[in-house]
Amino acid sequence: MINILDKTFVPFISKEEIETRITELAASISRDYKDSCPVFLVVLNGAFLFASELVKRIPLSCEITFIRVSSYSKTESTGEVKEIIGIDKNLANRDIIIIEDIVDTGLTMSQLISKVWEKSPKSVEVATLLHKPESLKTPIELRYTGFKIGNKFVVGYGLDYDEIGRNLDSIYALE
Ligand code: IMP
Q1: Each residue of 105-128: pLDDT tens digit?
Q2: Would 159 be classed as within a structural domain?
Q3: How confident is the model at residue 86 (pLDDT cuts 50, 70, 90)?
Q4: 3-class SS at 42?
Q5: CATH number at residue 128
Q6: How far is the centre of ligand 1, averaged over its atoms, from the C-alpha of 34 (Å)?
Q7: Which residues contact 42 (CB under 8 A, 6 or more apart)?
Q8: Which of 5, 67, 81, 102 most suits a substitution to test ligand 1, by most atoms within 8 Å of the C-beta?
Q9: Whose CA is nearest to atom 8 of ligand 1?
């Protein structure tokens, strides 16, 4: 058990389980994009750990770039996506893989996907470490998903509770 600010979290997904799953996702992406030079769009802050573990297992020539969106306050999704920063790169005719930490309501991701399509890419897919299918408020296709989880609040492996907990090397769930 760990305490972060006013809340208690319990172990949920171990470091070993996460790493095994990331290795599998990396193998799928490497296979699917073997004839491409994809652009990984890493959604900061939460996806930084997942992205670094994922891309170092993908032996393709590729580009990696970083964007920022924010829609979450403390433990509840606000549904409002603020400005997307850093999407100024030329993505025309490129294969894009958005790397995200978690898809909860899906509102952030669906707006992000629309914004990326405005840049006339060849394709857009999503790799997310976690997905909460029960919370989804908009239909969304997630090609690469690490773990589907129930509607619980989690921290660790990049995910935070009020900015704390991102450095934990495994995932914890709110008790
Ligand atoms: P969505 O728009 O509701 O899908 O929210 C996506 C964003 O909310 C993610 O990128 C996370 O930053 C944040 N988020 C959603 N669920 C959790 C959670 O369980 N723990 C920490 N952050 C979360």
Answers
A1: 998 899 899 989 999 999 999 999
A2: no
A3: confident
A4: strand
A5: 3.40.50.2020
A6: 31
A7: 48, 51, 64, 65, 66, 67, 99
A8: 102
A9: 72
Tell me which residues have their CB closer than 6 angstroms to ligand 1. 46, 71-72, 77, 100-109, 153-155, 159
Q: What is the pLDDT of residues 28-49, one digit of tens each?
A: 999 999 999 999 999 999 999 9
Let me know if residue 123 belongs to a domain: yes
Domain-embedded: residue 4: no
Vertex 70 angle, CA 69 and 76, to 5°: 145
> Would 155 be classed as within a structural domain?
no
Q: What is the atom index within ligand 1 of the atom nearest the CA of 69? A: 10
| Coil/strand/helix, residue 27 | helix
- As annotated, the active-site residues are 104
Q: Which of 72 and 99 is assigned the larger pLDDT?
A: 99
Written as one letter, the residue type at 167 is: N
Ligand 1 centroid vs 72 CA: distance in angstroms? 6
Q: Residue 80 — very low, low, confident or very high, per pLDDT cuts 50/70/90?
A: low
73 pLDDT tier (thresholds 50, 70, 90) = low
> DSSP character for 105?
S
> How many structural domains does the chain have?
1
pTM exceeds cut of 0.85: yes
